[in-house]
Amino acid sequence: MFTFASSPALFTAWASGTATGLGLFAVVGAQSAFILRQGLMRAHLLSILAICALLDGICIFASVWGLQTAVNWFPWLTHAILWFGVAFLAWYAFQSARRAVRAQGGLTAAQHAVPSRSAALLAAAGFTLLNPHFWLDIMVIGSLAHGFNDARLAFAAGAVTASVLWLIVLGVGSRLFAPYFANPKAWRILDGVIAVIMAGLAMRLAWNGLA
To answer: H or E element: which one contains 3?
Structure first.
């Protein structure tokens, strides 16, 4: 049981972790764009949200328990993750752009080429684990958590809470907007926006890697 003295400290750490997590995660990046598209396709959305939340939680607590130390021991991990991420994002940008220029590309993909559950989960894991920005966020959370000393796990729990909240927003939002995507033009616009986001992220990461 928590003592009266420790409970306020734990709550403060949890609230700080939640605020920090929302500030880091609540952006439309690679993972978010993928979840939105899968939600609009009604393709294994709950499974995808679950695996993303699980991976986020594991990585957040791993960071608090020593991920930063592992990166200090093996500096090449940062570069390997970065270039895998560049290749992955560039490939997805190309696929999205190709759908965007076809009259029925996105709508046909949604109606007739829904990926299997295993493929969807693998893609979700890729958009999470091959995203260098994700690892940077995770290491930031791990570093900040140690400033809360014995309450650092409460800070990590707050960051996990933020991750789950953002995933719920993405899932609910994609389902609310689903009726508007019976029109092929809406799919082409969405794929065009996703292509730009993915290509921009890939170029930014590549620039950082070469700098």
So the answer is: none
